[in-house]
Amino acid sequence: MGCYRRVLLKLSGEALMGQGQYGIDPAVLDEIAGEIRAAAVGTGLAIVIGGGNIFRGVSASAQSMDRAQADLMGMLATVMNSLALAEALTRKGVRAHVQSALPVGHAVPPFERLRALALLDQGDVVIFAAGTGNPFFTTDTAASVRALEVRADVMLKATKVDGVYSADPKRDPQAVRYRRLSYDEVLRRRLGVMDATAIALLREYRMPLRVFNMTTKGMLAKILAGEDEGTLVEEGAECE
């Protein structure tokens, strides 16, 4: 049984690429689905996933596009990623559902908050696609919004490093990992955990955020079991 009743997990689209330049690596997708399957027992798990792995393939062409049009393409990329993840979870016996903030015909049901809550309460995984459905908002912000809407106990931000550092640990060997941070410190230090709008939303509604390394096997399960891993960002936390 998990430590949390309900959780929102934010995944980057790039997490699905593996060693490729763009697209979805089937082996990586299967591994992520396996981590979620092993961890999600007893927890209502909602997921928001980005679209960078798909949009990266056309990003050069999008540079000259109208921003709203480019954002629409990015939102559609998240729909593709969400469908792929739901399929991978289904193959592993996990009941997974996708809801889209953008109308996409019969491909994906629309976002419906009460329906999502009912699915989460019965232990299913719900993947929220297409961001907020509006341009000029990142999937980080969409994740914060959805976490609040489903009344999550905590929001989890999956990365490729084991928390939030004072600098890029891959470039700076002197970089220090923080175990605790306040929202204000994240914004003031410009630590790049999430965009400022997403952090401000979490701060306003006192939603805890935990940043962790999704590539470490079993880490998601540890966090959902209540272990103190990664970096916790919350109201009133002192820098540690």
Note the topology.
Elements: E1 6-11, H1 26-39, E2 44-49, H2 52-55, H3 59-62, H4 67-91, E3 96-100, H5 113-121, E4 125-129, H6 139-149, E5 154-159, E6 164-165, E7 177-178, E8 180-181, H7 183-188, H8 196-204, E9 209-213, H9 219-224, E10 231-233
Parallel strand pairs: 1-2, 1-5, 2-4, 3-4, 5-9, 8-10
Antiparallel strand pairs: 6-7, 9-10
Helix pairs in contact: 1-4, 6-8
Can you give me a brief rundown of this structure?
Helices cover 37% and strands 18% of the residues. By secondary structure, the chain is α/β, with parallel strands linked by helices.
Count of DSSP H/I helices:
9
Low-confidence stretches: none
CATH superfamily: Acetylglutamate kinase-like
Helix content: 25-40%
Total beta-strand segments:
10
Beta-strand level of the residues, as a percent range?
Answer: 15-25%
Describe the 3D structure.
Helix 1 (26-39) packs across helix 4 and helix 6 (139-149) runs parallel beside helix 8. The protein starts with 5 loop residues before the first strand and ends in a 7-residue tail after the last strand. Helices cover 37% and strands 18% of the residues. The protein has a single domain (6-233), classed as Carbamate kinase. Strand 1, helix 1 and strand 2 form a beta-alpha-beta unit. The strands form two sheets. An eight-stranded mixed sheet has the order 3-4-2-1-5-9-10-8, with helices on both faces. It is an alpha/beta fold and 240 residues long. It is globular. The chain contains nine helices and ten strands.
